[in-house]
Specification:
By secondary structure, the chain is of the alpha+beta class. It has a single domain, classed as Immunoglobulins (Immunoglobulin-like), CATH 2.60.40. The protein has two helices and eight strands, in the order H-E-E-E-E-E-E-E-E-H. The strands form two sheets. It has a four-stranded antiparallel β-sheet, with no helix packed on it.
Length: about 140
């Protein structure tokens, strides 16, 4: 029983510490802040195996250097790459996202961006429709040319 009370007390104090850190980050006017030019990229209708690359451009609109610690796609078909160096206040950075267009049909995926910004995490969205393009057939006369 004594151990249970100690465990509950420790968990309570730990959760208070986490809440205090989160509140401090959001209330601190000197913290980094990430502002994206757009939070969504619409590929529209594209063909199977087409280029699935896009870029999200952001600016550090805060007062401290911005450090992106992780960008995570919602599935293995959505692969992000990002600026790993700190982005100084007023400077821009990019997150490049590659969607594997070898899957046919409509898609909606997300990339979650985690950083030291006071508005972290930020969720980016990609969407589109991939059409199955039938293979081109050639006649024997065209093959001889």
């Amino acid at each position: 029983m004594k151990n249970l009370i100690l465990l509950i007390t420790a968990l309570f104090l730990f959760s208070l510490g986490l809440k205090a850190q989160a509140t401090e980050k959001k209330d601190n006017p000197s913290t980094a802040e990430i502002t994206f030019e757009a939070l969504e990229h619409d590929y529209g209708t594209i063909n199977k195996d087409a280029n699935g690359d896009c870029e999200f451009i952001y600016t550090n609109t805060g007062k401290e250097p911005l450090i992106i610690t992780e960008c995570k796609g919602s599935c293995g078909c959505t692969v992000p790459k990002w600026t790993t160096e700190p982005v100084l206040p007023g400077q821009k950075g990019t997150i490049k996202v590659h969607y594997a267009t070898n899957r046919v049909g409509q898609f909606e995926k997300t990339v979650t961006v985690t950083s030291n910004a006071k508005n972290s995490p930020v969720v980016l969205h990609i969407k589109g429709n991939v059409l199955d393009v039938p293979p081109t057939t050639t006649t024997p006369a065209e093959e001889k040319k």
